Amino acid sequence: MPETFVYLGSVNVPSGVLVLGMAGWIDCWRELGQPLSERVRAAASSGGGHLHEWLCEAIVVPAAADRPLEVRASTSPSPFDGQPTIATLEVGLGVPWPGTADRSVPLRLGDLPVDRYADDAHAQFGGARIPRYGGEGPHGWLDLPLAEAGTRAAELTAWRDRLHGNGLMVPIDKHTDFHRFRRAGWHHPLRAGAIEVGGCQVLGIGWDQGDHSMRYCGERDAGQVYPVTLEADTAGQTVMRWTVPPYDLDGEDE
Asked: Phi, psi at residue 212, to the nearest 5°?
């Protein structure tokens, strides 16, 4: 039975290089040596491939620089709640399949790994419900200036320690591009959201333990890596595909 793909959004790559990677680790590349942008340029000069250092990983591949690139996904039901989760991620690269390559055999690029007292606090401090995927999140505030956010956090922490001990948590999310990705996908059924970064349209997709790509004990050390390939479509154009198997409840450790 053929796969059915849904449209997630589009990206543009004026550099002519598409990067598929984990947004939450972007800042760590610089701490390990070169920033991701410099590593991508080096990889692109040799035709792309798989970048991997420590927990930071990305796939780099040449793509059309003069048009939006569509991002699609096939889905299958989550074994947890039956809701659709991404099984295959596909990006049309806008370039023809290499004439010397066998169209019947995918070219493998590499693989990628796929992490009480609320009413009392609200009565004391106020705040609106913050939306999140699947419904409403906790009470809080969005888009506060940094100094004001720090003051609110200090007030909440002092209240928590004075009345309820240290068993409660007060999170602060900095307004980074990673946070903007997550926020843009709050109302999308597959948690996909597009934002603009440096004049480029970039697509972020949120994953959690219920999705195919994440496991409680995941990433490369646990063998949770899945192939990224280049394939030819029926029109002879090149597409990049990341295929992630369904979550196998029977195969999980107790």
From this structure: -60, -30
Residue 8 CA to residue 10 CA, distance in Å, equals 7
Structure confidence at residue 133 (pLDDT):
53
And the tokens for 6?
A: 């849904």
Cα torsion angle, 19, 21, 27, 31, sign: negative
Asked if 179 and 74 touch (Cβ cutoff 8 Å), the reply is no
Q: Are 19 and 58 in contact (CB under 8 A)?
A: yes
Q: What are the tens digits of pLDDT across the range 139-158?
A: 778 778 888 888 888 888 88
Element (H, E) at 96: strand 84-96
Q: Which residues of 220-253 are buried (b: 16+ CB within 10 A; e: fewer)?
A: eeeebbbebbbbbeeeeebbbbbbbeebeeeeee
Contact 94/63 with Cβ under 8 angstroms? yes
pLDDT in tens, 35-52: 898 999 888 888 888 998
CA-to-CA dists, residue 253 to 12, 214, 215, 248, angstroms:
41, 15, 11, 10
Count other C-beta atoms under 10 Å from residue 215's C-beta: 18
Query: What is the torsional sign of CA 4, 233, 227, 46?
Result: negative
Burial grade of 187 (CB within 10 A; 0-12, 13-18, 19 or more): exposed
Q: How far is residue 140's CA from residue 59's CA, in Å, rounded to a whole number?
A: 36
* Of residues 22, 15, 55, 52, the one with CA closest to residue 37: 15
How far apart CA 149 and CA 226 sit, in angstroms, is 39
CB neighbourhood size of 12 (10 A): 19
* 8-state DSSP, 222: G
